[in-house]
Amino acid sequence: MIPFALSLLLAAQAAPAARADRSEIGCNYCHSQEATAAADGIHRRSGIDCLACHGGDGRETGDAARAHDGDFRPLTSPQEAVLACGECHADPARMAHYGLKTDQLNLYRTSSHGSALFEEGAEDVATCLTCHGVHRILPVSDPRSQAFKPRLTRTCMGCHSDRERMSRHGIETTAPEDYAGSVHGRLLLEEGNLASPGCVDCHGSHGAAPPRVEAVEMVCGHCHTPERTQFRRSPHYQASLRGEMEECTSCHSNHAVDDLDSSELTAADGLCTVCHPDPESRARMVARRISEDLDRLQANILEVEEEVEQAARRGLFLRDHEGFVEELKSIRRSSAPVSHASSVEVLDEVVQRGNGMVHKTRRRLEVLAHRFRDLRIFAVVFTFVSLLLVGLMLAYRREL
Hints:
Elements: H1 17-30, H2 32-39, H3 42-45, H4 50-54, H5 64-67, H6 78-89, H7 92-95, H8 104-110, H9 112-118, H10 128-132, H11 149-160, H12 163-167, H13 175-180, H14 183-190, H15 199-203, H16 216-221, H17 225-231, H18 235-241, H19 249-252, H20 263-266, H21 272-275, H22 282-314, H23 321-335, H24 344-399
């Protein structure tokens, strides 16, 4: 029930045990369903009872009017609920015991949700209860928690795909569907990869707001640091400073981010053609060169990785083959972001380093293969000589 929505939201450090006992006797008498949900929550396990959020008299079991008398507050409005959460969660003295931040309420007030709630009086926006739940509040790291990353992302998607609700705020409803089909959405929602960004990773949680155009690259750059570094070496970066394009979203979109490969650089209808339609332009020639050289380098590295693995299976390596493979994989991973530099000079640096490692590894394989061949020859000769000696000894014994 909404009047008891916050009975477990507040982590009040000094809630007396006696009050918890009284609320168990009184509140549970009428509100057993809420009590059952609360019993599994982090607040109840920390000694935070119904009275900490709602007040009232927990000793009363038969008279609701008296139980709800005095300092009782039903917390029926979203504003009241959020402020009630903030009484504890914005209190440094109370939160110090749990090591929790105390800026959530201030951040929420600055967010799109908070400003709509407190400044415009809109009550259909996300609040603490929307994301964290009501009575059964669990830590965000708990997979059962409503605020666990994949669950929270689905909560955001549920609201932002509601056309009627979003129309009241002038917000498009395409983002949830776009995100669900993106490489980020598939990794998080279908594969359960928690390293993939959800809504709050880009927009923030308590201070949720759309990133400004000039800040999008910083948001993307938190995860895609090599790509951002290479982009800043490209002519596209200067174009973005002039306002002619956006740093990341012009090519990758914002929510519908796909897992692109080098074919986009050369395809007749690829991304590059949007701004560079002339197939004979210098930009398209650079794109083709980048695509071809990177594909060739990647193929060479994959080929030599397989050669190293085969050599290991044949017994050529004892301890160092994993180091070779990891170094090759590292070069292969670091070569992928080079396309963001849109520069032949930068490309040549990476290709030379990669090909150098490929050549070095193959030379090492040749040396080890020769040693292995010599060992096999020695083993054959040694076995032959040993058998010959044994035969001679047996013949000698028979003559005796």
